[in-house]
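Thread title: Can someone regenerate the structure for this chain?

I was given the following input by a collaborator and told the matching structure tokens would be attached. They weren't. Posting the sequence so someone can regenerate them.
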Amino acid sequence: MADRADGTPLQLTEPGVWVERVGGRVFPKHLPALFLDRDGTINVDTDYPSDPAEIVLRDNIMPAIAAANRAGVPVVVVTNQSGIARGYFDWSVFAEVNGRVLELLGDQGVLVDMVLACAYHEAGVGPLGLADHPMRKPNPGMLIEAGRRLDLDLQRSLIVGDKLADMQAGKRAGLAQGWLVDGDAAVQPGFTIRRLHDRDDLAGLITAIETIGGDNRS
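Best answer:
Regenerated them for you:
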């Protein structure tokens, strides 16, 4: 298993799971978090992104991350990466692409605190060819692992994603609400899906982030 291009080791806890603590921000225990999908939510999804030079951020997520940073709410990226299992690219390429995403976010003055990725997929080859792995969304494993490592309050946390699998992972992890990019609102037992289409929707997400951040200081 190769290291990154700069020689630093890959942040793998097992062959198909990446867990990376980003930056040095220290948080009190039992905070809620802002969970974010990556491709299609933070950056434009170019169908298995594998070229750092092609990464373009989506404009409407930056204010939400900034609100979380201001409120002292940890920001955690949870991303399925079946392109690795399918053999389209490897973890070293993922590291380069993800590094570019974080670099572009930093250029916009916003920070991510942890990145988790799952490469397992039933269409994969070798050890990554596993179906229904607990870390792969819609399963909640990545959220639960982040909750364990950062000692988060998952019930008060929020998730933003562009697929129903993101919302299902949030519900299964015990979150109460999520925002679906370009999707429709829905109410399910114990979980509310809100749409994220326009400025009004974004304002609602920012208000929700500020609310859970305000709860931290109460």
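The chain has one domain: 12-216.
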